[in-house]
């Protein structure tokens, strides 16, 4: 029968096939049009205008019709070979000119020298004008390049002959200025040449720099020369003629401007006082003004870069003056204040892109100050790790000595002030966020996008169809000439503006983290006494816990502030816990307080995730306290292991109290981790290890009383009891395998009997297989290597009884396991006699007997197959 689909399914299938056919037909038509155009390019009729006549011109007789709108391409000239030839020719001429100037110059008189150089240079400069009138542009470019090389050689020749005693740097500065002017005029006169004007820009980079160098000017004058050159390059980049000129000026201006900024920054940071820093500060301010002026008229990307450069230069200029009067530890604060002052640019009425660049510079300064202050904060948090090697060695004198850090804390005195200042500003922004949004509104104004050309998107063209509204391509394709806005919609690569709530949360989180870090650093900078430092850090942990509880329970869900408070509380607890290890009393006080604080936070908080984190942390701190108790009692690690199990026992009781509360499982897992620690402590002593394993089994059995924990906890309890028994037996030097396997077999068989009574349909392999195999198989393996007769005899008797029980009660597992073990055990007993008989028989007799056996089996194959099937069916009917 042929399956006939429902009408709706058949209709959908037909629609898909028709769509595929249409797409394939469009591809073939496009390919056909391209092939026709490539084979027979039509020649347009003189005077034909498609818009005037409305029809294509008639083609040659017999020629296929061309697609409507087809525009034939003109054959391109072999430019590559021409360019190679012209380049090689110009290079050879330049090499010849250099060789003539440097080698053959001395063999001619002064008149001949001047005449040759003047004639060749004049010819090279004149020839491009003639060639341009004849349309030989590439040749003209090659000769212009040769003329450029010749003018440089002329300058060298003039200096070597006419003015050999003049200063080389000064002469180079004057020559570069003269050549820049000459090549500018030459390039403007011959506008079709692309080389002269960029060459003039390159030559214009050196006059001021070489002049300052030749005059032996100080570094600040060199900086001004570099800045003036950069300003000239900026003007050329904005108003220059042609992309080559603008790109060259942009590259030169960037290099010169960067060099000027580096000179000013180096002089400002190494100044001996405020007056010494004011002179390079003026240079930096002038550079900032020039960059800002360029950003005012530059395109978007360059405007942002110019704004950022202007902001950084202004910070270096203004901040360098007070920084020169401060010590090394406080200079960062001066630059930070200037960087924060840049935020006032939002009221300055600058263009939006330039404003964004200045704000980016402000953010970079703040980020740099924070990066300077974060390493000492990391030292405060991680420094107490060194106390792990010498626990309870005695209380140190102060906070710094407890950290064991070698940082120059006297030079980092401004670090807490920096963190506190930034934290205060972020906190103010978090508190008055609507005002911040209103001030920063100009930064988020949508950008104007040019409208697409109507003629370029006609309804009948394929482009218009592919980018029509509603199609997927419309979300990706921008109109010609339209700049991509910084916030786009559609597509995986779109950049989305973060929401105001997310930004406010980030500000609040930053304020909280930096404020906490500022308080910690303040304690180290002031070198508070050890007890005060420990108490202060514990109080900070309590404050963070209170904030986390309050923020997480306000009903607005998780946000950056409560998450930051939670992370800070846990991190601070670990840090102050490590710090307290120097003193026994401090350790008990801190970890006891932490356990109480985190337990209280777990009770008060409303959200599930923070509650679980707080509860787990409280269990961890309690476990550490029990470890301290063992150390205080001078117990060995294995002797203190049972004491560590107190907290896991409490977690089992607490889990039974919480029942199906989401916090119950994390708490019990934390208790299990404490039990694992206890097992690790007892590993060195086998009797104590057996005791600890048995106690852990008791705890697991107590958890298994609950139905939701029974599947995992029950199996774990059984495994722990068995393992405890084995460890105890091994500690007592018991080597009989049955002593290890029978404690597993007996409970397993009891469980199997209970299972079969509750579910008579259960398989015998599930109920009795694991328990029987746990003893029979290891005993069989040992019996094969045992020379005594007692174990094989007892094993055979047990296997016989198991086999008979399986046959009597029709239990497959008992019959198969017992029969296999009985057969193998009997084979083991008969093996010596079989070997003795085999040694007495002739060598030809075993192969003969094997052959007769095969013949007999082959003759009765069908009967044996039926017997095997009946045996299989009989076993299959057993359970």
Summarize the structure in words:
- This protein has 879 residues and is an all-alpha fold.
- Helices cover 73% and strands 0% of the residues.
- The protein is built from 34 helices and no strands.
- The chain is extended, with a radius of gyration of 46 Å.
- 34% of the residues are buried.
Compact summary:
With 879 residues, the protein is mostly helical. It is 73% helix and 0% strand.
Can you tag this structure with a few keywords?
single chain; 879 residues; mainly alpha; 73% helix
Blueprint of the fold:
Layout: H1 7-39, H2 50-53, H3 79-102, H4 110-133, H5 137-161, H6 168-189, H7 196-203, H8 207-214, H9 219-239, H10 243-269, H11 274-297, H12 300-324, H13 331-341, H14 352-382, H15 399-403, H16 415-431, H17 433-439, H18 462-466, H19 500-526, H20 530-552, H21 560-579, H22 584-604, H23 608-632, H24 637-644, H25 646-658, H26 664-682, H27 686-704, H28 710-731, H29 737-758, H30 764-783, H31 790-809, H32 812-840, H33 845-859, H34 861-877
Helix pairs in contact: 3-5, 4-5, 5-6, 6-7, 6-8, 7-10, 8-9, 9-10, 9-11, 10-11, 10-12, 11-12, 12-13, 12-14, 13-14, 14-16, 16-19, 19-21, 20-21, 20-22, 21-22, 22-23, 23-24, 23-25, 23-26, 24-26, 24-27, 25-26, 25-27, 26-27, 27-28, 28-29, 29-30, 30-31, 30-32, 31-32
